[in-house]
Amino acid sequence: MTFLVAIHHPDTFDPSSVDEATRLDIDALNDDMTAAGVRILAKGLRPAHEAKSLRARSDGGVTVTDGPYLETKEHIGGFWILECQSMDEAVEWGRKAVGACRTPVEVREFY
Q1: pLDDT digits (tens, 9 = 90+) for 8-60
Q2: What is the C-alpha to C-alpha distance for residues 28 and 7, in angstroms, rounded to an integer?
Q3: How far apart are CA 67 and CA 71, in angstroms?
Q4: Across residues 86-98, what is the average pLDDT?
Q5: Three-state secondary structure along the chain?
Q6: What's the confidence (pLDDT) of residue 12?
Q7: Residue 49 to residue 65: CA distance in whole angstroms
């Protein structure tokens, strides 16, 4: 079973504000995930204001606009893709991600 573990940041998040202790905790979590054989991919994302949103138009075309698709107060700032035996196992990794990243996390299974 493959899961997305998404890290949520407030729209005001500044990556340069992450302290050394947080970076070390994230590095340790990445090492633990790799050692456990569950980590497939981990990536941070550029700020939401740099995103492009695409929507279908009734004439068959596509409209491209600047910024995220939804107007929210937070956005996905990074993610892991994990191969776990169950949702419970993925949630346990998510719990560790909350502690390491000091931010909310979403765990969702892929189809």
Answers
A1: 988 888 888 899 999 999 999 999 999 999 999 999 988 878 888 888 999 99
A2: 16
A3: 9
A4: 95
A5: CEEEEEEEEECCCCHHHCCHHHHHHHHHHHHHHHHHCCEEEEEECCCHHHCEEEEECCCCCEEEEECCCCCCCEEEEEEEEEECCCHHHHHHHHHHHHHHHCCCEEEEECC
A6: 83
A7: 11
